[in-house]
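*** Query protein ***
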Amino acid sequence: MQISQKPSNSSSPTRKQLIIIFFLATTLFVGTIIKVGMDHHWWLPETEIVSTLKPEDIKIKLDVNNAPWYELVLLPKLGEVKAKAIVAYREKHGSFRNIDELSRVKGISTSVLESIRDHVNIGGNSSPEEKDLTR
């Protein structure tokens, strides 16, 4: 009895190769779907801008007795060095009683003090009368 052998077609993939190709294609497809979903934030609700506020309309008020240096850096004309100097002065000499005491900190000139005056306060729970006294 003669056993006939089919000629091997080397260009067709084996079953094992087909499984690997299917797995890789599925992984690529699922990864693409996840990436697109993350880029478009599909899990977040849609938002709409309802205000015409400009960034310069938003006023920040920082308590110089409690704010860390990295928050004080947000103030106009204050860099990292001056913000750290305010914190160091506060730690060494205690809390500021009014905004004008900031001029005692090395590097805080009157122009810097005037530019940050509207953005800082002394104590978070000060009354309007106290805030007027600090000016």
